[in-house]
Every structure is written in C-alpha cells, then in structure tokens.
Design goal:
α4 runs antiparallel to α5, α9 runs parallel beside α13 and α10 runs antiparallel to α12. It is built from 15 helices and no strands. Helix content is 79%, strand content 0%. By secondary structure, the protein is mainly α.
C-alpha cells in the first residue's frame, strides 16, 4: 500500500505541476480560458452521464464479489456506447455554437472540450471497474499515464503556441491514457479472475441509472469544476486565471482524497463500513485532513513570503488570505471519503442533500460576489463555506441508524444500487 500511495502522489504531482508551469508561461487571461474550458469539459463528463456511470460506483464492487463479471461487461459496453453518442451530439452542437458566434470560443476549442468530457466519463467508468476488481495497480497506471502525457503535451502546447494548443494536449493525453488502460481492462473483464467468485440465486443487476448519486455528484462537481467558468463570467478571464492558480491548492487536497478513494472506496462499498457514527478509521482520516490543511497553510504562507516564484505571486496578485482559505478548502476535500461510507450504508439521500445545499450556497455566494464586484477572496470564501456546510451535513447523524456504541459492523445484503 505505501508504494501505491507514493506512486499515485507522483502521478498526481504531474497534474499539479502542469498547472503551475502553465500558469507561469501563459498570461493570466489565457490561463483563465484554459482552466475554464478544462473544467467545463470535465463537468460535462458527469452531466451527460445522466447517472449511467454513477450507478457503477456501488453496483460494480458488489457484482464483482458475486462473480458476475458478465453483467459488468454488458453494463460497461452499453454505457460506453451511450456516452459516445451523447458526446458526439454535444461536440457537433458546441462546435456549431462556436462557429456561429453563440459562444465566445472557437469551434475547435469547444470540440476539444467535448473530447475531454467523453474521456473523463470513460476514465470514471474504467476506474469503477478497476476498483471493483481490486486492481489498484491499474488505477495507478491510468493516473500516471494520463498525467504524465498531459504534463508533456500541455506544457509544450502552452509554452510554444497558445492556450488552445494546451487544451489540445489535454485531450490527446486523455485519449492516450485510455488506450494504455485498454489492455488491463480487457484482462480484468475477460481474464480468469472475472470468472471467480460466488454465485447468488437472485443475480444482482446494474440499474440503468442512479439518479440520486448522479445529481449528488453533479452538484458537488459543479463547485469543483464550474467555479472557474463562474468567475470568468462574473469577473473576466484574468480573474478566472488568478482563481485557477489558487484552486491548485485545493485540487491538491482533492487528489489526496481521490487516492484514498481508489484504494479503500470499493472495500467500503462491499460492505465493510460500520453503522452509525463515523468509525474510528474515518475519524482518524478527518483528524489527519485537519492537520494536513494546517500544515499546507503554513507552507503556503512561508513560500509566499520568499517571493518565489515571482511570476506567480506578482502576476496573479494572490493574497495571504486567499492562501489560508485555499488550504482550509484542501482539508475539507475529505468529504469524498465520508461519502463512500454513507454509500456503503445506502444513504445516497444524505449525500444528495449535502451536495445540494453546498451547490446552493456556492451559487448564492457567487451571485452576491458578482453583484458586489467582490475581490477574488469573496469567491474563494464562498467555496470554503459551501464545502464546510457539505461536510457538516455528511457527518451529522442519520435517523434510524445505530451509533457505533455497539461496536458491531454489518455486511450489506441489500444490493439496491
């Protein structure tokens, strides 16, 4: 496990380094346009799923334990076909809107956004399969290929050409990573391990969609991926660029959470989560997140005090307050782990309620910031308030569930996705 975390950190480090270098070589407005379309593309990967991918988060791990790889294969094939059709339609419509001046971007940039969206959806689907089969190595390889390709191609594109060339590099790297994962995916779905496991009298089938999870993930992702677009629309691309630089900090927290999810998420979904209040392991993770956030804030303030790199601090005018809030947001990304514990207890309603309230908080805050012509710190503070509210709701007791005073853990027999 230590090697998994280390290599995942290295792989994810490529993604963060890519953004830092790009922020240095591009003008703030150009960087703002890049992060805006990159976020919009990733968000479309969730939006156009319409619950297709979200249904796999719970169903695939449980199907795998029942030895029903054939059901996973059929579901994944149908999902991949459906997603391809949806994104083909999106690409044509987006390109037409750009060509006729209905959107402030070129047709080629909007086509690239659609490709990134489809690749994002496919990577989520692939990751669900790998998690279910306990192939953490495959998840690591996919992440490493994706981010290493992107670091090279995006930086070259942005440095030598333009932000649109950087976006092209992002799209190419995403597609290349999927090809790299193809061999491992074939081995998982058609290899000997796919035929092992137990059988059940009543097969557990994948639902076509999982609407509560879909809306929960969509609303939560709208904060993480749509925030740059919101800042861009309200304050312009240069402000979106400055926001994008600060957002690198809480993206780091999100990456750490995602690494944990890739390793333990499927284990929790397979029924190993405790009932009632958060189990000790989760409590320890929450404490670690708080300590890490505090440490990140100290490091960020210390680095800013040195004035290095000046190309970042001076060009983007990032304040100490913005860094403090960004560090706190990074720690709050631990909500992703809490969500998996709730999903293991079939508490999708709570996850949706938390995401919905957070999205409303963010929307209201961003609107007020736009009306009041607030500085960058106002938008960052809005995200901080939204994520804090989301975590509080996720951690609040669920009526009807036992606390952990009994010290017992149950394995789930309810297989409803």
């Amino acid at each position: 496990m230590p090697s998994f975390f280390l290599l995942m950190l290295i792989a994810s480090g490529f993604g963060l380094a890519k953004l830092v270098v790009l922020a240095k070589v591009l003008e703030p407005a150009a960087f703002g346009e890049f992060v805006t379309l990159l976020g919009a593309g990733a968000l479309s990967g969730i939006l156009l799923s319409f619950g297709t991918v979200e249904a796999t988060v719970k169903s695939y791990p449980r199907l795998w334990t029942l030895g029903q790889a054939q059901e996973i294969r059929a579901s994944a094939r149908a999902a991949a076909t459906t997603l391809a059709v949806r994104f083909a339609v999106l690409g044509v419509m987006a390109a037409a809107a750009g060509a006729f001046g209905l959107l402030p971007y070129s047709a080629s940039a909007l086509l690239l956004m659609s490709v990134i969206g489809l690749a994002t959806a496919y990577m989520s689907l692939t990751t669900s399969i790998m998690r279910a089969a306990d192939r953490s190595t495959a998840v690591r390889n996919l992440t490493l290929a994706r981010n290493a390709f992107a670091f090279i191609l995006v930086v070259i594109g942005g440095w030598m050409f333009s932000w649109e060339a950087a976006l092209l590099g992002e799209a190419i790297s995403a597609v290349a990573a999927l090809f790299v994962a193809g061999r491992e995916l074939t081995a998982v779905l058609f290899g000997p391990s796919a035929r092992s496991g137990t059988t059940e009298p009543a097969p557990f089938r994948v639902e076509a969609t999982s609407w509560r999870l879909y809306f929960a993930y969509l609303l939560s992702a709208a904060i993480a991926l749509g925030d740059r677009a919101a800042v861009n629309a309200a304050a312009g691309p240069a402000a979106a660029g400055a926001y994008g630089v600060v957002a690198i900090v809480f993206q780091g927290g999100q990456i750490l959470t995602n690494i944990l999810v890739q390793r333990i998420g499927a284990i929790v979904i397979k029924g190993r989560a405790d009932d009632g209040a958060p189990p000790p392991a989760l409590s320890s993770l929450l404490a670690a997140a708080g300590i890490s956030a505090a440490a990140a804030i100290v490091v960020l303030i210390s680095v800013k005090a040195t004035g290095f790199p000046a190309a970042i601090w001076d060009r983007y005018a990032i304040s100490t307050l913005a860094l403090v809030m960004a560090g706190a947001i990074a720690g709050l990304q631990i909500f992703g782990i809490v969500e998996f514990h709730l999903l293991a207890r079939d508490a999708e309603g709570r996850v949706l309620a938390a995401s919905g309230f957070a999205a409303l908080t963010a929307a209201a805050g961003f609107y007020l910031c736009a009306v009041a012509d607030a500085p960058l710190e106002g938008y960052i503070g809005t995200v901080l308030a939204a994520r804090l509210a989301q975590l509080v709701i996720l951690l609040s007791p669920i009526p009807g569930h036992r606390g952990d005073a009994s010290g017992k853990s149950r394995r789930h027999t309810d297989t409803t996705p």
